[in-house]
C-alpha cells in the first residue's frame, strides 16, 4: 500500500495542482464524475476508498453505499460522485487503483435518465435480492429505489416498483436487461412508456 | 347509397336503424342464417323496413325469410360487413367483402378479421375492382383513427398508440380506484355488460392487438410507393400481453408514485406491441372506464390525441356510416 502511495499518484498530484490555474479551459473546469467501486465487506474499506479521492483534489458530492446488495463476486458496490477537473479525475482513478480499490466503472457521465417500472409475480420465491443485484450488475443502470408489496405468504403474486437510474441514452438497454431477467424468472414486467410525456 | 348489411349484432342493427338519418337506404340485411331483401313485395318501392328488421331480430332471432346468400346478391352500392371478428382465414367476413368487390361494389367493414389477418389479399382484390374498402369502425369505435392517419398521410405518421379496449380499461380503472382484485372487477364488468362471459379476447389483449395490426397495415401500405413492397402485418406479428394477472398490489404501487397501469397498444410501420404499461396517473393516455384514446405521432404536426367511445352499437355504426359517406 505505502509503496503505491509513494509511486504513481504523487507526480500526478503535484502536476495537477500546479498547472490547473493557468491550464486549458476544458481541463481546468471541474465537472461531475461518477466512479463505481467494489469494496470488500470489511470495516474501514469505505474510508480507505474515499481518501484517494479527497487527497487528489476531488470534491466529494455524494456516496451511495449499497450495503446488503452484493456484486456477483460478493463485494459491496459503492457509487461515488465528485467534482474534479479532467486531469485530476484521471489521477484519482489511478490513485484508487494503486490503493487496491477495484474501480468497476469511471466516467464523467452521471446517470442521466430515470425510469420507473413494475415487476410482479413470485418475487420472493425467485429471490428478490438476487433480482435486484443482477439489475445492479448491468452496466447501464443502477437501482435507485425499490418499493415492495407482498401479500401474506408467498402464494399470491407480489409486486415491486423499481426506480432505475440509467446512463444517458441507455434506458432502452437497461430495460432490455430487466426484460431478459424477468423472462428468465417468469416475472411479469410493466414497462413505462418511455420517450412519451403522456 | 343502397346498403346491404351483413351481420345483425349490435353494430349491424344500429347501422340498419341509423342509415336513413345519414341519407342511405338499407336494401338487404342478413344474419348468420336468415336474410331480408327488399323486392318491393312488402308494398314499398325500395329498401327494407328498418324497424321491422330490428323488431323481428329481437323477438324471433331472425331478420327475415330469405337466405343470407340473397342478401349478398342483392342490388346494393355498399356492403357493410358487421359479422363477428374471426381470425386466421377471417371467414366468412373475408368472402363477403371479396364478393362485393368482384361485383365492383364497395365494402365497409366493422369486422376486424379481414383487415387484420388478410390485408394483402384484400388490397389485391381492391386492385382488381372498381369498388373500394373502408374500415374506420374496426379501430376505436367512434374515434376517427384510420381516417385521421390517412388525412395526415401514413408516410408522415411515425407511430400510433393508445388505449383501444374499453373492457380492459374499465377493469384497470376500477382496480386502481377501488383497490379491488381482478376477479371481483371482472365479475362486476360482466354484470354491467362491459365484459363478455368469455372475456379472453379483451383481457388477453387480442382485441387491442388486432386494432394495432390494422393500424400497422395502414401505416405500412400507406407509406409504400408500391403496395407490393409493403410489409403486411397479421396477429402473429404482434407481441401481446394481457392484463389477466396484474395484481392489485401493482396498481397500488403505481398509484403511490403518481402513476397507473393501462393496456397500451402501439403500432409503427415495423412493430406491433400490446402490453400493460406504466403511465402518469393524470396523463393523457390514462383515460378512465370504457373510454378509448388514440395518440398519433407525426413528423410535422406533432402529437394528436383523440379520445372517445371505443365500442357500442350506435358509436360504431356512426363510424360505418361515416365511411359510407366517404365513398359517395
Question: Can you describe this structure?
Answer:
The complex is a heterodimer of chains A (198) and B (328). With 198 residues, chain A is α+β, with helices and mostly antiparallel strands. Chain A has seven helices and eight strands, in the order αααβαββαββαββαβ. In chain A, strands 2-3-1-4 form a four-stranded antiparallel beta sheet. A four-stranded antiparallel beta sheet of chain A has the order 6-7-5-8, with helices on one face. Chain B has 328 residues and is of the alpha/beta class. Chain B contains 13 helices and twelve strands. In chain B, helix 8 packs across helix 9 (182-191). Chain B is globular. Chain A binds chain B through residues 116-118, 120, 147, 149-151, 156-161, 188, 190-193, 196-198, and chain B through 161, 241, 245-247, 249-250, 252-254, 256-257, 259, 261, 264, 275-280, 283-286, 295. Strand 8 (188-192) of chain A pairs parallel with strand 10 (272-280) of chain B, so a sheet runs across the interface.
How do you describe this structure in short?
The complex is a heterodimer of chains A (198) and B (328). Chain A has helices spanning 2-6, 9-19, 25-28, 45-55, 86-98, 128-137, 171-185, and strands at residues 31-39, 59-65, 76-84, 102-107, 111-121, 141-149, 158-167, 188-192. Chain A has 198 residues and is α+β, with helices and mostly antiparallel strands.
